[in-house]
C-alpha cells in the first residue's frame, strides 16, 4: 500500500490536490476535515461534540480523529493506497499514524507540503465562504485562528518529517495545474 501525506496550511490546496491525485493513482482520499463535517451533518455524537470547536477554528482531540481515520482504513477496498489530507496535524497524531502503520506493515512514501502565503490563504478561503458555507470559513478571526493553530501545533511536523528524509515541499500558491504537476513529480519519484 502506498501512503502519501498532503501537508499544508488552511487553504493551501490539500483537498483540491488530493482529489486529483486519488483519481490519477487510484488512492483513497482521506480528509479528516471532511470526515468531521460528515459527522456534523449527520448529527452524530461525534458531530455534536466537535461542532463548536470546528466553528472556532480549533483542533479536535487526537483520539477522536484517530478513530475516524482508523475506520476509513479498515473499510477501504480495491485501492493502491491512501492520500491523507489534513492528517497528521500534531506530533501525537504523527506517532499514532506510525503505530498504526507498524501494525499494518506500511510506511509513509512521502510527505508532500504545499507552501502558500497568508494573503493567498485569506483570498481562497473567503472566496470559498461565498460558495460552500463551511462554518469555519466566513469569519476572518476564525481563519486567523486556524492559521495560528497550524503554525503552533502542525508546523513542528516539518522538522519531524525532514529528519526522516521524507519531506518534500511544493509551490502551492500558483494555479491548480502547477501545484498538481509538482505533486505528481514527487509521487512519480517515490513510487
Ligand atoms: P480541514 O477541512 O482539513 O481544513 P483546513 O486544513 O483548514 O484546510 P482547507 O480544507 O480549508 O483547505 P485545503 O488545504 O484543503 O485547500 P482546498 O483544496 O480546499 O479541517 C477543518 C477543521 O477540522 C480543522 O480546523 C479542525 O477543527 C478539524 N480537523 C481536521 N483534521 C483534523 C485533525 N487531523 N486533527 C484535529 N482536528 C482536525 O482549497 C481552498 C480553496 O481554494 C477552495 O475553494 C479551492 O477550490 C481553492 N483552490 C485550491 N487550489 C487553488 C489554486 N491553486 N488556485 C486558486 N484556488 C485554489
Ligand atoms: Mg480541505
Description:
With 191 residues, the chain is α/β, with parallel strands linked by helices. The protein is built from nine helices and five strands; from the N terminus they run βαβαααβαβαααβα. The site of BIS(adenosine)-5'-pentaphosphate has 30 residues, from helix 1, helix 2, helix 3, helix 6 and helix 9.
Compact summary:
This protein has nine helices and five strands, in the order E-H-E-H-H-H-E-H-E-H-H-H-E-H. The chain has 191 residues and is of the alpha/beta class.
How many beta strands in the DSSP annotation?
5
Strand content: 5-15%
Main β-sheet, spatial strand arrangement:
2-3-1-4-5
Major beta-sheet overview: 5 strands, parallel
Low-confidence parts: none
Could you give the topology of this structure?
Blueprint: E1 2-8, H1 14-25, E2 27-31, H2 32-42, H3 45-55, H4 62-75, E3 81-85, H5 91-104, E4 110-115, H6 118-132, H7 140-154, H8 156-163, E5 167-171, H9 176-190
Parallel strand pairs: 1-3, 1-4, 2-3, 4-5
Helix pairs in contact: 1-9, 2-3
The site of BIS(adenosine)-5'-pentaphosphate (AP5) has 30 residues, from helix 1, helix 2, helix 3, helix 6 and helix 9.
